[in-house]
Structures are given as C-alpha cells and as structure tokens.
C-alpha cells in the first residue's frame, strides 16, 4: 500500500482527514504543516500519495509535482479558486466541500495508480540509482530531487532505463577515479 502523507496548514484539517483515512483502513505515514516539512517527508519516504488540503505558502502543488512527479501522486483538496490556479493536469483535484466517500474514493484510486507506476527496481538497481544521484549532487551541487529529475530526464530523452543511465554514471566515475 502507498504511503499517505497529509499536508495542510490547518491542524484541524490534518487531524480530521487522518481520522477519516484511518477509519477507512488507510495508514497515514505522516502529517505535515508546511511545504518544507512535506518535502523532507517525501525525501524520507521516497514515494507515496500526497494529500494537500488548501494552500501551503511555501509549496505550490505544481512545483511539488515538478520535483516529485515519478515518486508521488497528488490529491489537492481546496476551494475552486485554489484548484483553478493549479496548472498541472496530473494533479487530482477535489473541491470543498467534499464528501467522505469522494475523498476515500480519490485516495483509493491514487493509491492504485501509484502502485502501478512504481518502478520495479530491485536492490542492486536501486543502489546504483542512489549512488548516481549522490554523484550528481556532489559534482553539480544539485538537491536530491534535482538529481533524480536529471537522471530521469536524460534516460527518457535517450530511450533508456534510468537504472542503466545511472550505471553509466557510476561506471564513468570509477574510471575517472582510477
């Protein structure tokens, strides 16, 4: 099951949604009060479903999607004006007031989509990708999401698996060290 992260500036909203999801059989990984906390959480858990209730002053949903598109599914719950300001079509939106059934249905759907999208990387491939990200971060001063995105973009643009491109980076690093 996908890790569920709730993000809202409102403590009441976080608590209510957490209770609703728990009573419906979902396990909430973490609740976040700010965009920076949300980003740290995504980096720690690696992937999942993010449910953002209302706006966060330091984190626009479009920017979050840009940084973590391959790792998370995003459900934005808010007033119509907030939903309309969000440009990315990949972000699922739910207008307030939303029924409990609508929220649960959306979370179920996004959890299933997330599971289908997860890369089927196994131990050694995952380690290689992580090592390549660390090399890119060190060499080019990138953040972890930027390094991930750089690997992803290059692999997509050149029609190759991200793990294969990561292996090339690690291999070339070993050659330059020798």
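^ Assign residues to that structure.
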């Amino acid at each position: 099951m996908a890790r569920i992260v709730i993000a809202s500036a409102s403590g009441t909203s976080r608590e209510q949604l957490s209770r609703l999801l728990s009573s419906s059989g979902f396990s909430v990984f973490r609740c976040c009060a700010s965009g920076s906390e949300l980003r740290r959480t995504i980096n720690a858990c690696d992937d999942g479903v993010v449910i953002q209730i209302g706006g966060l002053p330091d984190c626009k949903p479009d920017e979050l999607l840009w940084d973590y598109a391959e790792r998370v599914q995003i459900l934005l719950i808010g007033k119509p004006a907030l939903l309309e300001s969000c440009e990315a079509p990949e972000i699922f939106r739910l207008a307030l007031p939303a029924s409990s059934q609508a929220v649960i249905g959306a979370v179920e759907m996004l959890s299933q989509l997330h599971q289908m999208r997860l890369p089927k990387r196994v131990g050694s491939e995952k380690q290689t990708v992580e090592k390549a990200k660390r090399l890119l971060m060190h060499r080019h001063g990138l953040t972890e999401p930027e390094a991930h995105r750089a690997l992803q973009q290059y692999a997509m643009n050149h029609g190759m698996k991200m793990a294969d491109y990561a292996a090339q980076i690690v291999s070339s690093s070993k050659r330059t060290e020798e």
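The mean pLDDT is 88.
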